[in-house]
Amino acid sequence: MGTNWLARVLVALLLVASGCARKQAPLQPPPPRPETKQNIVVLLPDPAGKPSAIELTNQAGTQTLSQPYEAVHWAGNGAAPGAPSAMDPSEVKRIFGAALDVLPQPEVSFLLYFGEGSEVLLAESRAELPAIFSAIRERKSTSITVIGHTDTTATPDFNYQLGLRRARGVAGILRDQGVRDSDLFITSHGEADLAVKTPRGTAERLNRRVEVIVR
Amino acid sequence: MRLGIFGRFLVVYFQYWAKDEEVTVRRTAGKAILFLVMGTASFVARGEDIVGSIKTAQGGVIIHRDEQSIPASEGFHLQLNDTVQTSADGRVGMILQDGTRISLGPATEMRLDRFVYQPADGKFGLLLRLSRGLLTYISGKIAQFSSGSVSVETPAGVLGLRGTHFAILIEGT
Prior knowledge:
By secondary structure, chain A is of the alpha+beta class. Helix content of chain A is about 35%, strand content about 20%. A four-stranded mixed beta sheet of chain A has the order 6-9-7-8. Chain A has a three-stranded antiparallel beta sheet with strand order 1-4-5, with no helix packed on it. Chain A has a two-stranded antiparallel ribbon with strand order 2-3. About 5% of the residues of chain A have low confidence. By secondary structure, chain B is of the alpha+beta class. In chain B, about 25% of the residues lie in helices and about 45% in strands. Chain B has three helices and twelve strands; from the N terminus they run ααβββββββββαβββ. In chain B, helix 1 packs antiparallel against helix 2. The N terminus of chain B is likely disordered. Classes of the chains: A alpha+beta, B alpha+beta. Chains A and B meet through strand 1, strand 2 and helix 2 of A and strand 1, strand 6, strand 7, strand 9 and strand 11 of B. Strand 2 of chain A pairs antiparallel with strand 11 of chain B.
């Protein structure tokens, strides 16, 4: 009986062991990627082709990236960043594509002009409105900034208010097109942000404007 | 979301009430107060509180704001101190009020830590805190007006940007 009991235990152990071994094989996740955990930063071409740079600093050192497609790899805060090296654009796409693909298109801005001291759009600017409406629709924009500006006739205080009235007027036109109030960001710069620098008391058509930025 | 002292008090009060499941009268009152609070919040949370909007949201994208976790959708308004988190199948594209464009890949977490865009006062600043994952960036007017006022902090190091377009992956700290 003693041996019988021992045999049963041994058989049971063998079964458990083999069971484990058999089960483990198919359950094992796909082999881990050979690369270890890493950090990478890559400088990408400036959309306008201007010079551009990034400085990476951590506890162990600093590296500067200054050429498009230069990349720095490093392991963590305690590890010094490696020297910049060129990264192939296809490699950039492989590693960063998931995020790069959903970068939004740039904001677009429109300028609308007004008569002297007037809150009424000039006819030529009224003709510009449909382009704004379609930009809002295309982008399904929920962020539209409307900034009122004036020239330097009248006082700065008056001009701030005039700029605000101009901006509110344009916002009203957008609202009539179905733009929600909560998506409109209305502000006035008065005469503080001249498109054309002029002395005080100068009527200047290009300064009497509302800027509409659609994001 | 800037609720003010009164709003915060109401939220706490509502939370206290909502826990008391037996007293239905109180729950009804709680709902009414929640409605009031949300009304107040949407009225107050305007202008400078909103720092950007979500343009593309795919898969799981959650916004962590104060104690709330809000599933993000396209058009969602982002506020300062929001943390944007994507799941393993998630990715998100957003545009900030200065035109800065940011996208996050899967399994990524980023907090909008600082956003200052006040051209009239000459004040500019942008700080993104990337805890982990994949971030790509194209600069906006903050960087244009004030080169050097944009940085990205990660557990593995800090990026100072004089750059307009870059991508970063943070896996190890």
